[in-house]
Amino acid sequence: MIKKVHIEDLQPGMEIVKLSSEIWEHLPFLYTEPGIIKSKNQISSIRENGYLHAFIKLDNSSSESDEKRLDRLISQREHTPPQKIRTPFSQEIEVAQKTYKKAMVQAKRIVNDAKLGRKVDYEATIDTVGSIVDSAVRNPDTLLCLSKLSSYDAYTYAHSINVAAISVVFGEYLGLARHELIHLGAAGMMHDLGKTAIPARIISKRGRLTENEFDEVRRHPQHGCDILKRHGKIPEEVLAAVQGHHEKYNGSGYPRKLSKKDIPGFARILCLADVYDALTSDRSYKEAILPNKALAIMYGMRDQDFDTQEVQLFIKCLGIFPSGSLVKLNTGFYGLVYESNPTLPLMPKIKIILDEDLRPIPAKLVDLAAEQAVGKDNLEILECADPSAYKINLRPYLTRKG
């Protein structure tokens, strides 16, 4: 089990977890040198070097994986949102792709307007977000798939769309009304506008930020709020969400150091979506973390960055194996996760697309929960796989029928 701790809470004998990706944007002073902490002198040295947090591996009396532990904790919740009839994935994915493409055009327009000092076209943004909301209601897994299969070449724009889409999907899962989802999605589309006011050399820096540089980054939520205020017609809840999307549950966030329930609800949702997308997206200077591992890390940030109940629901919404994940099966074959299963997170719908040697095969759509219910095949997911490590482009498999 993984948990984030403050440097002051480190003790000799604790094991620092090896992370496969930098997350400096959200945890710029994170100590990441893996291994056992051997002495108090080592802790003092870490503290003197300016590190504030570390991820440690906790002892677990059982051999259950992070994914199964999350599944067990989530399944203990008494309230389960009612199952809704969804538009079939194969039918909605083509609509979702058009929606995503339209959103990319609007995202670029928003950023360019902000850079040029022009008012943001909020009405056009609302129209774009409306399409995202409609697609999320019909079948949320299509947007989640697309958010994980976007290229880092357009990360600045794709990130805003992904945060909007993931936030809307989670908001819809929680039962928000359509007008609330519209405002939430609009905040997601525009949450990072304030970065246009930060020097590019800081935003694109690959190494660790200095304290002065991070002070500049801390200002971007307020910059974004100020940019949007010039429009004059943007709802207060949208402004509050943009301003508060880097606040943390324990009060250590920015710009206002709000804590717990003082953080606006939309801002808390944006923060979850923002961190998840940042962790699971390829960048020019870092590789993405596999979705299930990213969720395990986020779970380790409970009661610090996130409210425990909210992050558990977020994980339940996305699924332990989120849509768009490449997974290895107990048969040795590989599949693409199509649709999550909130009731049985370990048993999503998948499309089996590759054999054990990673050679394409005629695609086969399988509902793991349904298969188990009738005692057929006993297919199981063993682990998530990294498509980039095998140079596999998963996007064509979203619409391929065979």
Global shape: globular
CATH class label of the largest domain? Mainly Alpha
Helix tally equals 15
Q: What series of H and E elements makes up the topology? A: EEEEHEHHHHHHHHHHHHHEEEEHE
* Oligomeric state of shown chains: single chain
Number of structural domains: 3
CATH superfamily of the largest domain: Hypothetical protein af1432
Account of the 3D structure:
- The structure is a single chain.
- This protein has three domains: 62 residues, no CATH class; 230 residues, Hypothetical protein af1432; 73 residues, no CATH class.
- Helix 4 packs across helix 5, helix 4 crosses helix 7 and helix 12 crosses helix 13.
- The protein is an alpha+beta fold and 402 residues long.
- About 3% of the residues have low confidence.
- It has 15 helices and ten strands.
- The longest helix is centred in the first third of the chain and has 27 residues.
- Strands 1, 2, 3, 4 and 5 form a five-stranded mixed β-sheet that branches.
- 45% of the residues lie in helices and 11% in strands.
